Amino acid sequence: MPIALQAGLWGLLSGSALVIGAVIGWFVPLGRRVIAAIMAFGAGVLISALSFELIDEAWKQGGFLPVAGGFLGGALVYTGANWLLAHRGARHRKRSVPEKREKQAANNPENGAALALGALLDGIPESIVIGVSLLAGKGIGLVAVIAVFLSNIPEGLSSAAGMKHEGKKAGHVFGMWALIALASGIAATIGYLAFDGVPPAGVASVMAVAAGAILAMIVDTMVPEAFEGTHDFAGLIAVSGFLAAFALSRLA
């Protein structure tokens, strides 16, 4: 099987967790604290993955300067795009709290496109990382795939629960997440094809850009939901997720 196709399938697999989470959030009446706890755990998993699977590996390939430039650049690009989408109705796309979602919908009643673009913005860096991880010829970075998969479940879960409170139709919600899961597969394929043959320093920069964007996404969109639902326990749950991903990376 062509490696580019493998990258796409791995990206699709990780993106499918969004659909799984959306199904759970739509049909299973989970309390706000449970949703927030899952979000906190997913945030910890992602932080561990970007620390040991992305930044550490990027530093080994390219050194400090490409990593520092890419890391700050990724955070800057994500923050700018997120700011634009937030002012078009996608600020609380990962929130399950009805009051915040209702206020957002009232201010931006036609926010469907912004929500979809926001979810796509959150998923693209993660998917590109999956494709880039195949460039070294050592096979897929399973820890990165598992981390993205685990973090996507609470994203789909929380957002779908919030959309249900907004009165969105099930077909609209599941269709949106299915398309984003498909886009995740495409982004992973592009991540492999676009950077195949690029020098190690260039690959390191790409990995650092993705890591910076992911960390900015975690703080901007996942941490608020996690903290508001679990309060003083958010840090402990996030540490548990970090430790689980760290143990998985070392065992792998």
TrEMBL record:
The chain crosses the membrane at residues 7-28, 34-52, 64-85, 128-153, 174-195, 201-221, 233-251. Signal peptide: none annotated. It comes from Sphingomonas rosea. This is ZIP family zinc transporter. Keywords: Membrane, Transmembrane, Transmembrane helix. The keyword DNA damage does not apply.
